[in-house]
Amino acid sequence: SASISPKMRALIEFECRRARDYYARALAARPVADRKRLVASEIMRAVYFETLRRIERRNYDVFTGRARVPRPLQAAIALRQLLWPS
Fold first, then answer.
1. What's the gap between Cα 81 and its chain centre?
2. Which residues contact 59 (CB under 8 A, 6 or more apart)?
């Protein structure tokens, strides 16, 4: 949108790429044996990752609207993590 400057968009894009890198490194370092014990943190990770995806789909514009995950989708993400952990 016109309300976000190219420099701000570039900064948010950089931070999103950085967040994706942190998510990937955390997943790679996660002990498989601890997966069941970490289910709450895995649910949070999945919800926050969906928020990140929504920011990216909005072309990094976090100023003209909210990039939030609706509660029903949060519940679906939580259920998916409980039944089929990633």
1. 14
2. 1, 9
Cα–Cα–Cα angle for 67, 68, 72, nearest 5°?
145
Please count the other Cβ atoms lying within 10 Å of the Cβ belonging to residue 77. 20
pLDDT: which is higher, 3 or 59: 59
Find how far residue 11's CA is from the centre of its chain. 17
Phi, psi of 25 (to 5 degrees): -65, -40
Q: How confident is the model at residue 2 (pLDDT cuts 50, 70, 90)?
A: low
Query: CA angle, corner 5, sides to 7 and 8, nearest 5?
Result: 40
- Whether the Cβ atoms of residue 85 and residue 39 lie closer than 8 Å to each other: yes
